[in-house]
Amino acid sequence: MAEQFKNYIDGKWIEATSGQTFPSMNPADRSEALGHFPRSDHRDVDRAVEAARRHYLRWREVPAPKRAEIMFRGAELLLLRKKDLATLMTKEMGKVLKESRGDVQEGIDMTYFIAGEGRRLLGETTPSELPDKFAMSVRAPVGVVAAITPWNFPLAIPTWKIMPALVAGNTVVFKPAEETPLVATRLVEIMEEAGLPPGVLNLVHGLGEEAGAPLVRHPEVTLISFTGSGEVGREVAIAAAAEHKRVSLEMGGKNAIIVMEDADLDLAIEGAIWGAFGTSGQRCTAASRIVVQRKVIKEFTDRFVKRAEILRLGDGLLPETEMGPVINEAQLKRVHRYTKLGIKEGAKLLTGGEIYKKGECAKGFFYLPTVFADASSKMRIAQEEIFGPTVAIIPVADLDEAIDVVNSTRYGLSSAIYTRDIGRAFKAMREIEAGITYVNASTVGAEVHLPFGGVRQSGNGHREGGNAAIDAFTEWKTLYIDFSGRLQRAQIDE
Ligand code: UN1
Predict the structure, then answer these.
(1) 452, 463, 464, best to mutate for ligand 1 pocket (most atoms within 8 Å of CB)
(2) Ligand 1 pocket, CB under 6 A
(3) Domain range for residue 465?
(4) Mean pLDDT over residues 216-235, rounded?
(5) Are 35 and 75 in contact (CB under 8 A)?
(6) Is residue 492 part of a domain?
(7) What residue spans of 278-384 are helical by DSSP H?
(8) Do 374 and 422 fall into the same domain?
(9) Cα 464 to chain center, whole Å?
């Protein structure tokens, strides 16, 4: 019988009020439950938010460098347990071990990076227009932060939200995806061990409707930081608007790689394979469109398909595996629906397009790397986020057309161009409408000390990572200190 896990509220590990649980399953082997987790509802959310609110007043008074010391210890513990965490992650969400290690490393990087902010949290000092008056701005915490995170980066993304929120003096209620509660639990255990005081970081497991929704609506939650689908993001924003809450949203992508005729094709093919099929295409930065100049499209496509066809599918724990399963049955069906749709729309299916059930793979949710050619940018397979190993190749005449195609979706998260021409590279960097553009590199692989996020419906104007991470979790407070001893009127006194 798999282990029973608990919520973490006010420094105590406790069951859900309902007494009910839900399992976390291995997507590579649908018979393996990794544990059972509390199926929380509004009563558990109320307790967690109440604890976070109560401890906020004390936590915000702890000097930021002291708060950061706990984060440094947390990062060290994550590093120490990197191997075990990665193994657990592969079992819980399926990506290959190497990528799981990368996910944990991204969490470690973020935690160290943000811990450094404990001694910075920089504001401004600037002259006043009046004599004997001092002006500055400082950062203040916002209050109770709800961190709602997805399953595809079960460790990295929680750290993007939790660590900057905490170092800035906020308290947190963390509601991880129901698909990856075990990795989330391990992260919270590590932060407890690192010395976080009770109530500062609270963990509430459960389903979106039952636990996420009441958390979003709770009047004592000041800021919601959400990463997930556009549909849920919209609901979060609407619910938050009713209470004038701050909301930071990271949503989908329909990221494209442009391949120009002058590109290093070996490099472009390698980058496109990695972008399209890494994490089985389940990254919000995954490359699901490849926009190729006609002159090289035949060679590119032939070689790309050959590479896709030899990718080894299997359990991500096996060293020879190159692509793991998709997250669950529903996602498997969704990916397959898009295959049928692509065929109906008139794109040419070159490879894949099938659920993969050979050998041990029959136990899990495997889908073959799927490549469509002759796609047009109007097709739904070239417009909608599939979140699976499906890619559409779109032919174009020149860079202008390529950029039009790239900019033709409602999203704008990541993008890439392969070219040896510096002029084309700069034009693409300027004209692609996306939060991130890579030159001669794939659409995945963002580093934590730079801003991460997208334009249009990929986000709502906020960024994670870099200095932007601190912006998202603090309020500016502007301070004027007048030591003239008389009434001085800005804009009025000469
Ligand atoms: C995501 O898919 O939600 O740039 C995040 C990347 C990773 C983060 C992806 N560093 O692909």
Answers:
(1) 452
(2) 106, 152-153, 283-285, 444-446
(3) 7-251+459-479
(4) 97
(5) no
(6) no
(7) 294-309, 329-345
(8) yes
(9) 9
